[in-house]
Amino acid sequence: MPRIIGAVLTAAGFRAPAHVATGGAALAADPADLVLLDLQLPDTSGLEILSALRARPSPPAVVVVTAHGSEAAAVQALRLGADDYLIKDAALRDLLPQVVERQRRNLALRRALAAAERDLVAAERLAAVGQITVSLHHALNNPLMAASTEVELLLRGGDLSNDQREALESVRASLTRIAEQVRHAAALQSAPVVEYLEGAVEMVDLAATPETIRPARRGSALVAAEDPGLARILGHLLGHAGFAVETCPPRDVMARLNPDRPGVNAVIVQAGAVAPTVLPTVAAGSPLLVAVGAPGALAPFEGRVTFAVAIPFDPGVLVQDIIARLEHGAF
């Protein structure tokens, strides 16, 4: 059975799966993204292993593989948290790649949503820090100015001993340093903000800070969109996936793809903002071309791009499709 599963998955373009023969070995093995779990194991019940896997902080997707006639056990496994199940019968060869691909896409979507949630929490925290520092600035500014003025008046007076004058000079220097720090804190008011919910919520835009983007490891991607919100979303998703992202106005796509300039691995354009005729021909050595837009705007791009995606789209599926096509050269 492991040899059959391995052959079917590698023939479908997946990596050869690792194989362990017991539940104990499964729990001791390196973490996996997906586990194909037999319910009949020599040392324990597959359901016990399922429970242990689901209890992990980052649980894998689990697909139960069971014998024909044991559908009741598969249903029980689903109730315990299994993501899907397969029956060992003639349909296994056809169904296995479909089930694994579905779970891969689900996992990619969960990771994309988790990354978006982390960014949202970070943005909320940064916005809260900004609000606190602005409040402190307003609370400290007036008394700070009053104290500085009193020190200046005392220093201009003539009835001070040398010790008193030195003490006031020290106080003035300290007040000057405090004022500088208050001004730095107040600068957070000018941090770039983005409207995350139309007309409702504005937060500090982490995407405006290059340091928040992960190091590029998948090459470069060019985003050409007239809608700034769409450009920001696409850039954020691709940046998190490991691309070095560059945005450009729709009219500058051909200039950016000039052979004299550095190469681009993927080009994502907004349908309706970019004319299909300005895109390079899909051929060996050309970048992956993707059109994103309203369904009615995508028709002219048929045959001119590698694939088209209608809005609204699944962010995890879109990015994983781009990565998979680049890795396998399927464009």
Quick tags:
alpha/beta; 10 strands; 15% strand
Average pLDDT for all residues: 79
The succession of helices and strands, N to C, reads: HHEHEHEHHEEEHEHEEHEH
From the structure provided, what is the oligomeric state, counting identical versus distinct chains? single chain
What percent of residues adopt helix (DSSP H or I)? 40-55%
What sort of overall outline do the alpha carbons produce when their principal axes are compared? flat
Head-to-tail CA distance between termini = 34 Å
Strand order of the largest sheet: 7-6-8-9-10
Radius of gyration: 30 Å
Would you count the extended β strands for me? 10
**Helix and strand composition category:** alpha/beta
Number of discrete helical segments: 10
Percentage of residues in DSSP E strands: 15-25%
Q: Detail the poorly predicted runs.
A: 193-214
What's the story with the biggest beta sheet?
Answer: 5 strands, parallel
What would your notes on this structure say?
There is one protein chain. The protein is of the alpha/beta class and 331 residues long. It is 48% helix and 15% strand. Strand 9 (288-293), helix 9 and strand 10 (307-310) form a beta-alpha-beta unit. Helix 5 packs antiparallel against helix 6 (162-186) and helix 5 (92-156) packs across helix 10. It starts with a helix and ends with a helix. Residues 193-214 have low confidence and may be disordered.
